[in-house]
Specification:
Blueprint (H helix, E strand, L loop, with lengths): L9 E3 L2 E3 L21 E2 L2 H7 E3 L7 H5 L4 E9 L5 E8 L2 H11 L3 E2 L2 E3 L2 E3 L1 E11 L7 H5 L7 H11 E2 L2 E4 L8 E9 L5 E6 L4 H11 L3 E3 L1 E3 L2 E3 L1 E9 L13 E2 L5
Parallel strand pairs: 3-10
Antiparallel strand pairs: 1-10, 2-10, 4-7, 5-6, 5-10, 8-9, 11-16, 12-15, 13-14, 13-18, 14-19, 16-17
């Protein structure tokens, strides 16, 4: 039997991480890009501009199942300093749902540029850690004891989760293409976030519109609904990808 440890709470260590783009914009001196797209903000600059940082709740189902780990998100901050979009890049869906709710309430100092206020994009990492978590010792490994690790806790939990499913998919007249998406379906059966492959703006708009006619049944851990990822293929009726303008691969805060 798994040797599960007791906990007294959790330690949350929020940290801003690099966006993966080599060139960092200077908050006070970089003008908005010619196409009015948001500026990419470096982690140190974004950290200095953060004025309201609500900590995520540690979900009860995550505590019971000893779920720990990091959630990485991409935030788009509008000209007023409020988070306009939050998108999950990586992380357990139960923890990610809590992270989304919190970061959408974050507030930054507005980014001022020579040409006026500008949106910016940055990434953040929220770490969910239980207090007094005891990892396996050398003696326990040598004695072959069946001990619990964060990876083992994650696998055990996922084996017990009944995944979400599509209850009703809206029909599309004369579909010409199929868009693959990974959805984050929350415990209410709502699409709270999604990740998509690169596509044209027409395809993206058609996919979002089609998704509004879909309904979902949330995942369940026993009888308790929980957030989970779901991969779907959505038929759309738009021209194929042209190879010119396309949307980003990841888009956040989408609710049908």
């Amino acid at each position: 039997m798994t040797n599960r440890r007791h906990y007294r709470g959790f330690l949350l260590l929020p940290a801003l991480v690099m966006t993966g783009i080599s060139t960092q914009a200077r908050a006070q001196s970089s003008p908005a890009t010619p196409d009015n797209s948001p500026i990419i903000m470096g982690r140190k600059q974004a950290a200095k501009m953060l004025v309201v940082q609500q900590k995520p709740d540690y979900p009860a189902v995550a505590k019971v199942n000893y779920l720990q780990g990091s959630v990485q998100l991409e935030l788009t901050v509008n000209c007023a300093g409020k988070v306009a979009k939050a998108h999950v890049l990586q992380g357990n869906p139960v923890l990610a749902e809590s992270a989304l709710k919190a970061t959408r309430r974050w507030v930054y100092h507005p980014l001022e540029t020579p040409s006026g206020p500008s949106e910016f994009i940055t990434t953040v990492e929220l770490r969910f850690t239980l207090d007094n978590w005891n990892f396996e010792s050398a003696d326990e490994r040598d004695n072959g004891r069946d001990v619990l690790t964060p990876q083992r806790a994650e696998r055990d939990f996922m084996r017990q989760v009944k995944p979400p499913k599509v209850v009703r998919a809206g029909a599309v007249a004369h579909p010409e293409d199929v868009v693959h998406m990974r959805l984050l379906v929350n415990d209410q059966g709502e699409v709270d976030d999604m990740e998509i492959s690169p596509m044209s703006k027409d395809q993206f708009d058609a996919a979002r519109q089609a998704l509004r006619n879909w309904t979902f049944q949330p995942a369940r851990w026993g009888t308790l609904p929980v957030a989970a990822y779901l991969n779907v293929d959505i038929p759309i009726s738009t021209p194929p990808l042209s190879g010119t303008a396309s949307t980003p691969a990841m888009v956040g805060q989408v609710r049908p």
